[in-house]
Amino acid sequence: MDVDVIVLGMGPGGEDVAGRLAEAGLRVAGVEGNLVGGECPYWGCIPSKMMIHAGDLVVLGGRPPDWAPVARRIREEATDDWNDKVAADRFTGKGGHLVRGHGRITGPDEVTVGDQVIRAARGIVIASGSQPAVPPIDGLEGTPYWTNHQAIEAETVPESLIVLGGGAIGVELAQVFSRFGARVTVLEGLDRLVPAEEPEAGELIAKAFVDEGIDVRTGVKIAEVTHGDDGFTLAGVTAERLLVATGRRVDLKALGVGAIGLDESAKAIPVDGRMRAAERVWALGDAVGKGAFTHMSMYHADIIVRQILGEPSYEAEYHAVPRVTFTDPEVGAVGLTEEQARQKGLDVRVAHTDLAASARGWIAQARGFVKLVAADGVLVGATNAGPSGGEVLGLLTLAVHERVPVRRLSQMIYAYPTFHRAVSAALADLDH
């Protein structure tokens, strides 16, 4: 098959690139070994947030914890029972060629899928995504442990669950299953939950979990896992199910990037500001190691499409990457943490305010906080934790992205009584 562009991986970013290029009249081959649409709509963002929303209703609305309608909605509404016909038809309807199977780069401008060789006149876009990173713990291999896939597909709630890993995926799913009746234990190897975020965020989530009956254990090193009739046992804890949520990985060797001169043993593909990895090769999303977020892959996709179509483009910037942990309380963060800013040698100033000290926080009896990290008179990072933490994050992301001076932010009018007004209280500590 001869085409203009090969898109290797049809997750959110890959599908966007492939679809837009096909609409522009290019011959595009989209290669996908799993489901068109990728992780996000089938096992990630969409179904997990359905689960979280349902768990919130259990707590806030006093609804009985009935898992059946949640599982049914995920199966029928979100994933079409893990069938990608709608997404596949959407792409082919734009004129794209969908190639099913594992694609491997076998030479410049060439990808092989099974016994089919595809050649590209303009180049290749690597949009391969990532897979769960499962640690090499003695006794784990060969057991029926869960990754996020099996957790999302679960039709019943286990009586008990161990969550190995206290990052965003681990804590989100831990709270969901706890709210639907599972006895949950979270094991994290580092000294706090969500270790990539501010320490205050991990402390906040841990306190909320303890209040909800979730057993949180940090600083735990796992040497061995055993599995038998009574379930899984590790670190002295036994449970019916084990969810391994210890991060994501990219398999560059399986992609065959050595054929275009890239290091197959690397953790990610190095790219320039225009997402170019090599001559006529671009890469996006998880594969480039700038954050395993759907919004990151879509951001990269736009840059690449503009490059290929010869449209005015821009270089990728990473000083204001937003991310949200969708627990209750919800943690929204952008830019650098305090520790990261200090490691960069910046002259750091920090402000912190308790959400309960704000009028809206007091009214809602909400727990949370706003933490601002500033350097040279502008915000370089911020965290907003509490109800709708990810929504309030929009204000802070814009401020960090555009490097708005703290003085100007403190001169804004903040509606009263709102959760976002707590930002102005934190700014008051910086603007003097």
Overview of the molecule:
By secondary structure, the chain is α/β, with parallel strands linked by helices. It starts with a strand and ends with a helix. The mean pLDDT is 96. It has 15 helices and 22 strands. The strands form five sheets. Strands 1, 2, 3, 4, 5, 6, 16 and 17 form an eight-stranded mixed sheet that branches. The chain is globular and about 65 Å long.
Strand content: 25-35%
Q: How is the biggest beta sheet arranged?
A: 8 strands, mixed
- Residues in helices, as a percent range: 25-40%
Number of strands: 22
> What does the radius of gyration come to?
23 Å
Question: Overall 3D geometry?
Answer: globular
- Low-confidence segments, ≥5 residues, pLDDT <50? none
The number of helical segments is 15
**What is the residue-mean pLDDT, rounded to a whole number?**
96
Distance between the termini: 65 Å
Structural class: alpha/beta
Name a few traits of the molecule.
8-stranded mixed β-sheet; flavoprotein; 15 helices; Pyr_nuc-diS_OxRdtase; alpha/beta
